[in-house]
Amino acid sequence: MTVKEALEDYFLIPRKIRHFLRTKKNVQVNGQAVHWQCTLQAGDDLTLTFDPEDYEEKSLLAGDPSLVEVLYEDEHLIIVNKLEGMKTHANQPDEVALLNHVSSYVGGTCYVVHRLDKETSGALLFAKNPFVLPILNRLLEDRKIKREYWALIQGKLPQKQVVYKDKLGRDRHDRRKRIVDPKKGLYAETHVTILKVFKRTSLVKCQLQTGRTHQIRVHLSHHGHPIMGDPLYNPERGSRLMLHAHRLTLVHPFTLEPIQVEALSQGFEEILAQEKNGNDR
Fold it and tell me: What positions does UniProt annotate as the active site of this protein (predicted)?
């Protein structure tokens, strides 16, 4: 590809930033400034230099770095273990959420790649700079970032593996909730596999093929297996929503190294142990 194609199509650099790179001559191939129609060859060293002043940095309230449990980190991205009960990002200017804590830990503004519901715990990916953010977003859209969740559900699935493809939309009667809406809903696909069956409940693995709001929660509830402790979709509530982002897998967009992390949740594991000891058959 040409230098222009690399910047636009592979690195997904916004037009404004490409303009700065061009005017400041901050793109070099093998140490030399080149024309943007120059074709890149295997083994070429492409160097991009970004000025922080070219990016508008969002101002965030300071967080608490001690609340950040790092699962993986390099100069471009960070994966952390989110606590149950903590928001991914703030909805109000005076709120402090995980994004604030991670940014304070890193020492600069980070960016949300995907989010977890407040009640959900587990592995969560953030970009450490605005350059890598659109690339990670594209990997997510192309389903190249794999997310595996564990859920404790009511009852037992009819078979070991099921695939739900119900379209999801907003609940007109409760703005917090989503519902299955075959006519106006957006396509959603969730793959569910039984891991362990207890007396009244089952531990299942859920893999997302799309990333709709409350997707796993709505799919399971709609098919008669709501997640234990779900405050919105399960009238039989428990101590916490038993949904945990257990594993996150991707290939690093720059180094091409495979990255796989697993997140543990003490509260989730304790409830599972109680379920096993009290109801395991």
Answer: 117
